[in-house]
User: What shape does this take?
Amino acid sequence: MSRVHAVWAVALAGLTLPGVAEACAVCFSATESNRGAFIGTTVFLTILPLLMIGSVAFYVYRRVKEMEATEPGA
Assistant: This one.
């Protein structure tokens, strides 16, 4: 079976078996604790990459400034 056939088979199974799609804990178990956990995780996973990129950028900026300060003839 080719990859295209496998993708179509999975898509068709997903459309014909709607009970399988009810795996979302937020949509089908709408308790306040689940919603809070979902929102908290979303915020965390949104901010984390930004903090990582910002930390690397700040480190590089600080390192360049240090190297410019210790440059001979400056």
